[in-house]
Amino acid sequence: MTNTANIAKGLEGVLFTETRLTFINGAEGILTHLGIPIQEWAEKSTFEELSLALLDGELPTAAELARFDADLKANRAVPQGLLDVISAMPRGIHPMQALRTAVSYLGLLDPQAEETTEEARRAIAIRMIAQFATVIAAINRAQEGQEIVAPRMDLTHAGNFLYMLTGKEPTEEQARLFDIALVLHADHGMNASTFTAIATASTLSDMYSCITSAVGALKGPLHGGANEAVMDMLDEVGTPENAEAYITAKLDRKEKIMGVGHRVYKYFDPRSRVLRDYAAHVANKEGKSNYYQILETIERVVVERMGSRGIYPNVDFYSGTVYSDLGIRKEYFTPIFALARISGWCASVIEYTRDNRLLRPDAVYTGARDQHYVPLQERQ
C-alpha cells in the first residue's frame, strides 16, 4: 500500500525558499512588497519605482530611480530583426504564442544572453522590462495589419505602451490608470509562472530561457487567462438585468465563475478592491457602466452565496473591464499581465540564484512492481 499522506497536490503549502520581496496573507487579504501594502504602492508609486525596488530589494533614492528610468527609456527600442519576425508571424495566432517566440528570439540577439552572473541578469532584466512593452505593442499592431509604432522617450512606461498600442498619446489619467494596473500585477509571490522561472533558473540556465518558461506558464487559462474569460462571461450575460439570474443559475449548477476564488486569498484579493474603485470611476466618467453594473451584481451574489467558504472576487474580476475601457482587446489581457509580471519574474530569479539550489522534487510511485519484460511477439 503506497502512502500518499504527505503529497501536497499542486505544491500547496510547500515551502522551498525564502524571499524578501512579497508577502501574502490570504486569510486577511494582505499583499505587501518589501513590507509596504499594495494599496500604498498603487496610490503613491509607479511601475518604474516598484520594478526597481523589486530588483534591488529596497526603496530607491530619487537619483537611483531617475537613472533606472533613463535606462528603461534607452532600452525601449528592439532590434529590427525581431520586428521583422513579429511582422512575419501568422495572422490570427494568440498573442501569448507570439510573445513566447519573441522573448526567445530576443535572447538570440542579445550578446549578453548566456551570461548568468547577477550583474548580467540585472542588466538583461532592465532590457526585458523596457522591451516587453515594445514587443507586445508591436505584436498587436502587426496582427491587426497596422504599422508598428516606435517608442517615445518622453512618456512614462505605461503611457508609452498605450501610445505604441494605439498610435495615439493617452491622456494623463489613462496613463496613470494603466500604470496602477501594472503596479498591481508586478509581483505576487510564488505563483505558477514565477515558480517556473525559478525552476528554470535553478539549473543555471540563461535569463531569456527563464522568462520564456514563465511566459509559457502564464499562457495557461488557470493562471493568466482568467480576465479574458471574465470578459467572455460579461458578454454572455449581456445586460445588468440578466446578471443575477445568470450567476444564480451557474452557482446552482456548481459551475466555475471566472475571476472568483483564489488559491491563496480566502478573503477579498486586495488588488481587486483597488481595481474595483478605478473601474467604477471609469464607468461613471465614460458612461461605460454596463460591464461594471454586471460585475457589481455578480460580486454581490457570489459573496452572499460563497463568501462564507472563503470565495471572493480576485484581481482578474475587474482588471478586464479596466483594460477594455482603455481600448485594449481581451486577447491582450494576458500579455499585459506579462508586461507587468516581468519585473517580478526577473527579481525572483535574481533573488533565488544568489543562494541557488537545483530544484529537484520527488514523486510517490504508484505504478506496477515486480514486472518483467514481455517480448513483443508474446503480448496480447
Q: Can you offer a commentary on this structure?
A:
With 380 residues, the chain is an all-alpha fold. The chain folds into two domains: 22-220 and 331-353, Citrate Synthase, domain 1 (Orthogonal Bundle); 226-325, Cytochrome P450-Terp, domain 2 (Cytochrome p450-Terp, domain 2, Orthogonal Bundle), CATH 1.10.230. 57% of the residues lie in helices and 3% in strands. It has 16 helices and three strands. The chain has helices spanning 38-44, 47-56, 62-74, 80-88, 95-109, 118-143, 157-166, 172-185, 192-201, 207-218, 226-237, 240-252, 270-286, 289-306, 315-325, 333-353; strands spanning 22-25, 30-33, 36-37. A three-stranded antiparallel sheet has the order 1-2-3. A hairpin with a 4-residue loop joins strand 1 (22-25) and strand 2. Helix 5 (95-109) packs antiparallel against helix 10 and helix 9 runs antiparallel to helix 10 (207-218). The longest helix has 26 residues, at 118-143. It is globular and about 70 Å long. The model has no long low-confidence stretch (mean pLDDT 92).
User: What's the CATH first level of the largest domain?
Assistant: Mainly Alpha
Q: What's the helical proportion of residues?
A: 55-70%
Which CATH architecture of the largest domain is right? Orthogonal Bundle
Termini separation (Å)?
Answer: 28 Å
**Count of helices?**
16
Strand order of the largest sheet: 1-2-3
- Full CATH superfamily name of the largest domain: Citrate Synthase, domain 1
Class derived from helix and strand content: mainly alpha
Tell me the strand percentage band: under 5%
Biggest sheet overview: 3 strands, antiparallel
Total number of beta strands: 3
- Radius of gyration equals 22 Å
Unreliable spans: none
Shape: globular
